[in-house]
């Protein structure tokens, strides 16, 4: 309903509480905000979503369609998050972090559970990374049940997890990729980093032109409507940045479709 995987984490965060909160707040580049808004609407909880001024109109509209109050605040995700945290302290709203809360990570892990139930003979899975919640959850679950190789894919110009791995600690970056509205964390999550460091096998960076070409290919060749961040993992394959071995069976996660892409 929210056009991406993120409602899994939002619902799990809310439903894992002993009592549902009266209000919830979240900061988002767009998709997490839509997910929290949708979960809150379904559960009868008031939602306030802080998004940067640069958030795509398609994503802001989707958040509002789910009845949440949208606060366009800050020039980037980090600024929106800071404003959201101030609001949470003042209003006492329940917080759902976009990627670094363990309940969010656990909810996202259900993508892997369902995937492996449907396809049980994969060799490799390619997963796009923003703040790291999706890959942290998926990789942690997958490595408990199988030896499938997990590959993290990030835009070169928004590579917070790649830089964290290079420096052995979460390291601030300045996201400038065209996919930064969904893959634009300036700092990967500490919990996400620790889990990815343990369970992810390879980290690859791709260029913006790779993402644009992959998005176009998904639509022209398969009629799959993907946002830029959603096309990133596929871009690693189509660009050749991920080198495929003979007879290797690969799963590619197309993780979001909130876009005004016209083909």
TrEMBL record:
Tagged with keyword Lyase: yes
Family: Belongs to the serine/threonine dehydratase family.
Organism: OCS116 cluster bacterium
Protein name: Threonine dehydratase
Listed cofactors: pyridoxal 5'-phosphate
Residue ranges constituting the Tryptophan synthase beta chain-like PALP domain according to the UniProt record: 2-256
Alphabetic keyword roster: Lyase, Pyridoxal phosphate
GO terms for MF: L-serine ammonia-lyase activity; threonine deaminase activity
Family matches, as InterPro entries: Ser/Thr_Dehydratase (IPR050147), TrpB-like_PALP (IPR001926), TrpB-like_PALP_sf (IPR036052)
EC number, UniProt record: 4.3.1.19
A Pfam family of this chain: PALP
GO biological process: isoleucine biosynthetic process; L-serine catabolic process; L-threonine catabolic process
């Amino acid at each position: 309903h929210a056009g991406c995987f993120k409602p899994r984490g939002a619902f799990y965060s809310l439903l894992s509480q002993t009592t549902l909160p009266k209000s919830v707040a979240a900061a988002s580049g767009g998709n997490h905000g839509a997910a929290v808004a949708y979960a809150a609407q379904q559960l009868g909880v008031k939602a306030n979503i802080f998004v940067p001024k640069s958030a795509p109109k398609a994503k802001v509209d989707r958040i509002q369609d789910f009845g949440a109050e949208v606060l366009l605040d800050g020039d980037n995700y980090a600024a929106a998050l800071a404003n959201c945290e101030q609001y949470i302290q003042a209003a006492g709203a329940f917080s759902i972090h976009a990627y670094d809360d363990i309940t969010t990570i656990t909810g996202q892990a259900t993508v892997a559970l369902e995937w492996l139930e449907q396809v049980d003979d994969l060799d490799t899975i390619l997963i796009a990374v923003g703040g790291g919640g999706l890959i942290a959850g998926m990789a942690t679950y997958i490595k408990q049940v199988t030896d499938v190789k997990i590959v993290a894919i990030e835009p070169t110009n928004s590579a917070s997890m790649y830089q964290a791995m290079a420096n052995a600690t979460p390291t601030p970056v300045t996201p400038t990729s065209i996919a930064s509205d969904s893959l634009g964390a300036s700092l990967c999550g500490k919990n996400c980093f620790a889990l990815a460091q343990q369970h992810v096998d390879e980290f690859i960076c791709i260029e913006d032109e790779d993402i644009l070409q992959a998005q176009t290919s998904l639509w022209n060749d398969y009629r799959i409507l993907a946002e830029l961040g959603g096309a990133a993992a596929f871009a690693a394959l189509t660009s050749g940045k991920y080198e495929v071995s003979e007879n290797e069976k690969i799963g590619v996660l197309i993780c979001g479709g909130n876009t005004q892409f016209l083909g």
